[in-house]
Amino acid sequence: AAGAHVIDGKAFAAGLRARVADAVPAFEAAVGRVPGLAVVLVGDDPASAVYVGSKGKATLAAGMASFEHRLPADATQDEVEALLARLNADDRVDGILLQLPLPAHLDEQAAVATIDPDKDVDGLTPVSAGRLALGIAGLVPCTPLGCLMLLKDRLGDLSGKDAIVVGRSILVGKPMAQLLLGANCTVTMAHSRTKDLAGLVRRADIVVAAVGRAEMVRGDWIKPGAVVIDVGINRLAPAAGEAKGRLVGDVAYAEAAAVADAITPVPGGVGPMTIACLLRNTLVAAHRRAGLADPE
Ligand code: NDP
Questions:
Q1: What pTM, to 2 d.p., does this model score?
Q2: Which fold has domain 31-118?
């Protein structure tokens, strides 16, 4: 094939961020304040600190208020939950993001479950998961939401498409499958115990790979004309002369690009969509909390 269309997640995310920023002044005029996102970081994991920093920056760049809260690595469960309770009660805060993972002595699920579902911009509370499963309006995890946007942008109506999601994590795979089902796809959920994964992927019009294994999905698994969304972010061991190894996805990109209709690159595909969708979720949460219709 001449090669797949390369889905430009970076450009799409920039457009989404701009649309969020454009909606802020009207919200402010109606409500008397800008939407606000609170990010909570417990401990000093360097990667988490970087994520929290870029989320704060993106929030401010969209014209929204950013509230950053840091707790020490030895914070107790009660201290974490007390902070979340304060943020639940704070009217300036429309979205609450608890940066994961928490230090090992803390109960992550229990802490997440205390977040007000109407402020759960990560979509990780049991209530948010339940709303998604029941098809009730709620907040949806950012990464799969971004994947769905890219798919709809490429394909339009997804009705009747055969979709496979490889990976069933709470953060990505499971909500992705729910979203595709909600969009009327016929959905296969694959995981580490799946038999004949290659054969199942070969049937699919839509392939979403969220596994965390470098280049596991091969080109000869891809049905010609399929759309491939690669969520994986894996760093290879450095080759000779490289300081750090290359980033690759869960899909063997060059092979798959030779047969697919369209494919997301790594980096520059799904990755940039996550923060853009976090801003979008914060804007949506703010509108719903204020009793306004969802922004366009
Ligand atoms: P998890 O490790 O939580 O889940 C991985 C899933 O892959 C599990 O369901 C597991 O199955 C399945 N799996 C593992 N090995 C195989 C195999 N050989 N065949 C089929 N399935 C397999 O990962 P996440 O969902 O959190 O993340 C997946 C990838 O996406 C990672 O590379 C991560 O870095 C990336 N990511 C990127 C984001 C972004 O772009 N912004 C955001 C979040 C994640 P089982 O359940 O049976 O163990």
A1: 0.97
A2: Rossmann fold (3.40.50)
